[in-house]
Amino acid sequence: MTIATKTASETRRTLTRRSLLKGAGGLVVAFSLGAGRVQAQDLPQAGELKSVSLDAVQSYLAIDADGLVTVYSGKIDYGTGVRTGFAQMVAEELYVPLERVTVIEGDTALTPDQGPTYGSLSIEVGGKAIRLAAATAREAMLANAAEQFGAERSALSISDGVISGGGQSISYADLLKGAAFDLDLDEDAALKDPASFTIVGQPIIRDGLPGKITGDFQYMQDFKLEGMVHARVVRPPAISAAINAVDEASISHLKDVQIVRKGAFLAVVAEDEWTAVRAARELAVTWDAADSLPDQAELWEHVRQTPIVKDEMTSDIGDVDAAPSAREITATYDFALHTHGSIGPSCAVADFTDGKLISWSSSQATHRLRRQLSDMFGIPDDDIRCIYIEGAGCYGRNGHEDAAADAALLAREVGRPVRVQWMRHDEHGWDPKGPPTLIDMTARFDDAGDVSAWDTEFFIPQGGGGRVALLGADLADLPTTSELNPGGITNDSAIPYGFPNVRTVCHRLETTPLRPSWIRAPGRMQNTFANECFIDEIAAELGADPMEYRRGLIDQSDARGLEVLDRLRDFSEWEARPSPSSGQEGARLAGRGMAYVKYELKRTYVGVVAEVTLDAHSGAIKVDRFHVVHDCGQIINPAGVRAQIEGNVIQTTSRTLMEELTFDRRMVTSLDWASYPIMRFKDVPEVRIELIDRPNDPPWGAGEPTAVVVSAAISNAVFDAVGARLRSVPFKPEKLRAALSEARG
Amino acid sequence: MSITIDVNGTQHEVEGDPSMPLLYALRDQIGLRGAKFGCGLGQCGACTVIVDGRAVYSCLMPISALEGRAVTTTEGLLEDGEPGKVHRAFIEEQAAQCGYCIAGMVMRAQHLLERNPDPTDDQILDGMQTNLCRCGTHAAIIRAVKRAARS
Amino acid sequence: MTHRRLWFSGFAVLLILIAIAFAIVWRPAIDEIREGSAPQVDAAQIARGYELAQLGNCESCHTAENGAAYAGGRKMETPFGAIYAVNITPDRAHGIGAWGPDAFARSMRDGVSRDGTHLYPAFPYTHFTKLTDSDMSALYAYLRSVPAVAESAPENELPFPFNIRALMAGWNLLFLDKDQITPVQGEDDDWNRGRYLVEGLAHCGACHTPRNAVGAEKSAAFLAGAEINGWYAPPLAGAEAGPWNTEQMEAYLANGFSRAHGAAAGPMGETVGNLAQAPRADITAMATYVASLTEGAAEELAAIDNGVPEDMDAAHTLWTGACADCHRNPVRDQGGALNPSYGVPLSTGAAVRSSKPINTLRTIAGGIDAYRDVGGPYMPAFEDSLTSAQIADLARYVRARFSDQAPWEDLQERAQDILGQVDPDENREGDAQ
Ligand code: FES
Ligand code: FES
């Protein structure tokens, strides 16, 4: 059996660390930060250096002549720790120390197209392939060594990257001599027994973390190329606008500023960054702006009235219309538009030389970005290379791809490498947004008082998790896709509860007020909010304990679901009783509420209990504590999982209590942190976490699944405290005051 | 125009428009990347550095106001190239998700601890309140500040 | 008349005088109510009392920085010395837990504590005396519902003779007008309700009306503007005021911001934080009344930009690097989205037009932080990054560039006062000039 067919000198398809460094300028970025001038036309393209196909081991893995392991991942890390997770999985399967593993992410020339990074699927899906590649490689190397040693495969062992047996030993490095793996991914490759894991399952400090703290880490925002110029985009004062006049003289006091104008795309380019900032600010432009947005005060009416392009039935059990209906309860839930609010606005660098483009960005979908840039500029995919560099966190797709398009367009126009840094108002104003979601719920009861039907309707934008039109292309009248892409937002509209008749319909709407995008658990968060509140409404209606009630309704053969609920009851010291609580006096009231999800009805289980205190006079809600019980199967890095859970709870508490994007008829008006406040230190809840580790089960996503239960748990806790139901996110004080006066009648 | 600024104990000549905020001088001329651009509006604290013992937003600090003043950034807290006390506490608590806010958090914490080496929990919350984090790392950051205070 | 009789008469007159003085000064203690004997109140009354407490801004004064609500301890500087607000939580020993409704009402109307001692008018009973009985009861009900806190405020720091509380009896004789407010015929309900609130519970005059030598509000200069606690409470009535219209004033009171006037900062920022919890109808009423006090048409002022003033290059440099990104060129702002902290034309801001520089100086130094978590106006503080000379320079610059008013005097001294320090490095101050 041959595992390495050719050596480095024989072919370009092979890979050594040296050739990587010499030939692939872009890769220098991954190894030594702050690379020198890179010429786009020198850059190797996809498949030139190595395979990027989804079924070849070398697409994912290389071991160089020094025994250093390089992992190539199409999924990328935003600080969530997946890079570290991949390295752990590979080090584990290969029996090498973690320090010897380097991960290269999201480079269209080097990494396989594993799809965009989303849905907390990186470890679950992306990691699985990488682990298989490592196992396939290891098994092949073992077989090869057995052959060389003349020994039985079963007599061999591996330690520290050295295969030994029958009195002989050889390192991976010596075995491979720098050659690439010429193997197909073996779906059935033997995986290491989790019982013997020494690296997976350890709370490893996430890669890059120390440098982020000392200032050494290079973010996208820090990336520089020699000869690079700085650009700022001047956005119109309306989504629908055309340039009327640009007064170039208004910035004549600034040195060497170039104004780039293409359609409604307007930008300034300068040698130094501050000059670009000033030029964008001081350039006098008049625009012809038009109204294109609905009146925000009538937003929900607008959503309800938007034409429906199709209905998707995500569950249809029994016959809801024929179900007995002695009485029914109905409720409407809504969830505001949210912005990503990355602390670092989007940034990209591009070099466009001789018709070839190299683009550095924090895009979590570099392969898709390449296709979009190819459309935009009318050049083949092969002439474009997109390279990911970690940026400030976003939680889905924010403005990275748009910044990449801006930079590419400007690089083409000015003929030099260009860095585009969005300003705060660009980010808050123009990145795609979590769409407004409206949900109508109905439950019917039979004569015996049992629920006979669960009937819900979700008003959500059409489209999937594909591409979002590139802003720069749009403004400059260049080709770009114009589909709506809110993500897989029908997920979690169906419920894990066994009612006799269930219908969940997603009305897919033709349009949505602002460009939609997936933001942390898109759809799943809004849908779970409504579902988990409404199940609480039913429990209250029936006078049942909300925990017990849910427990009785989930599939009784789903042992993992039952265990999550049972452990949550104990962990949170849940007192079994119906909500609302009784006997509280005064204006400061305490409540507890729970929510549960089996993510997308097929993976990670999360149960949470929120404890809140509220002020019935002012309507202010303080979330004191969250108890989280979490089962994501095998845990790769418990420190990473805990950090993800904690971060998701805190961020979603912020979204739930205070966040709401505002807009006028022309554009977004919440353009900064003052007009779009997010939660700060004093309001942060304590997060108590119990992890259920299942080393023998597949690892599932951790992160988003926790986010989706937060809003409902808070709403349910508020109901428990005061008997008033909050059905509209965010739960601003005035909404609680209104709900209270309604509850009091 | 050229202005001399003391950054982390070294004198740097900074060239350019005197209205240029310190943030750009640090990042583009002096070559330090700890201080981050987050808003340029004094709202988020990602750019926080210490000037003459006070935590300031470097995005709103024109270099013209800096002649003769001493600036410390997160890089200046290194001790012989190794992470300093506050750094170590943040690393041990793994207090970063994306980490973009963190260098600013470190400087805010450093400033807090310089003024009050033994802060109460409320004083820590109060002291850190100006800085924003979007990843929800707050709880870990608080643990790190407490750890730094204890060490 | 014999010598002896004369002596007797004199003695009698003295006794009478003492008796009169005593009668004026002396107030009986009102008995403590027994534990648990406070009158039963319903939730609606507490809720109403809460709203009234917001209109009265009670919590702001009766809560120390980072202290428990209503537990007192907040220091108020007066020309006579420092006074600390007392604990008004229902704690029996430290607060007003032992006070019955009559003791509470007497303190509010007469400025006399339950034990009979006189209160100082830093507690604005000269306004609260106007409260109706039902409002008084609701407020009492609410204050009994807040959590009791066992803490005492620090002792007042008043030198002799101001530490003699009995003197306040004479003061009250002169300045305490207990007449109730009666509706003015011909004005509408909003106006009358607004007047009742403004002159009574909301006690706007306590800050906005100048005081005489003994600390009483000058009735002839009602709401004519006054310096208080290091801020200038601008005129709300008369030719110097405004001009405001009802909508602008309502927006300002409810949200802390009016595009035509700027943002509520400092103590007014706190007040707005409380008013935001009050019924909108009451805010509308107050706005109606206050707006009626200004003279002239309340048109939006045209934005002024005189361009970069001569000889202010250093300040212009500071402005460009530190201020301009938020307070941008109004030309750009017209077309685009507007929000309170972004793109405010400074020339319409009351602080820049004011006859006194302190609000501008204070705002540059301390920023505006009251609305940080509710989406209102925000401005970062510059006291840690700029010197007092630089702050003074910026104030001079914005006045010259964005107003048509005469330059301010004494900016440097006032800025130094505000920063509470003389900069250690004089050279640095010189550089910024
Ligand atoms: S970048 Fe300076 S405060 Fe946000
Ligand atoms: S760690 Fe990402 S913003 Fe704080």
From TrEMBL, chain A:
This is Xanthine dehydrogenase family protein molybdopterin-binding subunit. It holds the Pfam family MoCoBD_1. InterPro entries: Ald_Oxase/Xan_DH_a/b, AldOxase/xan_DH_MoCoBD1, AldOxase/xan_DH_MoCoBD2, AldOxase/xan_DH_Mopterin-bd_sf, N-heterocyclic_Hydroxylase, OxRdtase_Mopterin-bd_su_IorB, TAT_signal. GO terms for molecular function: oxidoreductase activity. The lineage of its organism: Bacteria, Pseudomonadati, Pseudomonadota, Alphaproteobacteria, Rhodobacterales. Residues 214-291 form the Aldehyde oxidase/xanthine dehydrogenase a/b hammerhead domain. It comes from Pelagivirga sediminicola. Gene3D superfamilies: Aldehyde oxidase/xanthine dehydrogenase, a/b hammerhead, Aldehyde oxidase/xanthine dehydrogenase, molybdopterin binding domain.
Automatic annotation (TrEMBL), chain B:
InterPro entries: 2Fe-2S-bd (IPR002888), 2Fe-2S-bd_dom_sf (IPR036884), 2Fe-2S_ferredoxin-like_sf (IPR036010), 2Fe-2S_ferredoxin-type (IPR001041), 2Fe2S_fd_BS (IPR006058), Beta-grasp_dom_sf (IPR012675), Diverse_Oxidoreductases (IPR051452). Residues 1-77 form the 2Fe-2S ferredoxin-type domain. Pfam families: Fer2, Fer2_2. The keyword Iron-sulfur applies. Keywords: 2Fe-2S, Iron, Iron-sulfur, Metal-binding, Oxidoreductase. It comes from the Bacteria. The keyword Cytoplasm does not apply. Signal peptide: none annotated. GO terms for molecular function: 2 iron, 2 sulfur cluster binding; metal ion binding; oxidoreductase activity. PROSITE patterns: 2FE2S_FER_1, 2FE2S_FER_2. This is (2Fe-2S)-binding protein.
TrEMBL record, chain C:
Heme c 3 binds at C323, C326, H327. Residues 44-147, 189-294, 310-402 form the Cytochrome c domain. SUPFAM superfamilies: Cytochrome c. Heme c 1 binds at C58, C61, H62. InterPro entries: Cyt_c-like_dom, Cyt_c-like_dom_sf, Cytochrome_c-type_DH, Membr-bd_ADH_cyt_c. GO terms for molecular function: electron transfer activity; heme binding; iron ion binding; oxidoreductase activity, acting on CH-OH group of donors. GO terms for cellular component: plasma membrane. Residues 412-433 are annotated as: Disordered. Keywords: Cell membrane, Heme, Iron, Membrane, Metal-binding, Repeat, Signal. It comes from Pelagivirga sediminicola. It is found in: Cell membrane. Heme c 2 binds at C204, C207, H208. Its cofactor is heme c. It holds the Pfam family Cytochrom_C. This is Cytochrome C. Binds 3 heme c groups covalently per subunit.
